[in-house]
Amino acid sequence: MALKSTIFKALLAVADIDHSYYADHPLTLARHPSENDERMMVRLAALALSAHALQSTLGGDGTLSFGAGLSNPDEPDVWLRDYTNRTRLWIEVGQPEEKPLVRACSKADVVQVFCFNHASEIWWKGMESKVSRLERLQVFRIPTAASQEMALMAERSMQIQATIQEGSLMLSDARRTVELTTERWK
Q: What is the CATH number of the domain that holds 165?
């Protein structure tokens, strides 16, 4: 019998001061059996960092949601789609291979990768020359210490405040606050 995903509910309140975007996002996160809390929370942080695109890119007329991610390699971890179902933003979390990134760049206007674990630097050294031609690709590094702290925030029911100011993200719940600044590699 196959293991089922674990369902998490989150109310994500985004206050993106940099982009003048303020909105609440009620979310359902399906954590794949092979996914850990750290990766799931990085998906949530990536969504928070990109939520402003819902307004700035689509004028509020679209959907920002989690894709099937690990369950379906043809879907991203997070995506932004307009009302015609065109994928405007495709977000991958972790260390994807070259072929899925090339495929994603052919399907979306912008592709973002958020890598986060201690092996990210090694992965990027091997990938940088392979993906340098992909104009639609952006690669960001989330500090490992921050992603590990975010994992401690994971609960089946979460209320999280995401504040983005001067390029930094601060995630807070009732018990802790995690601050991080992504480093852009591409």
A: 3.10.640.10
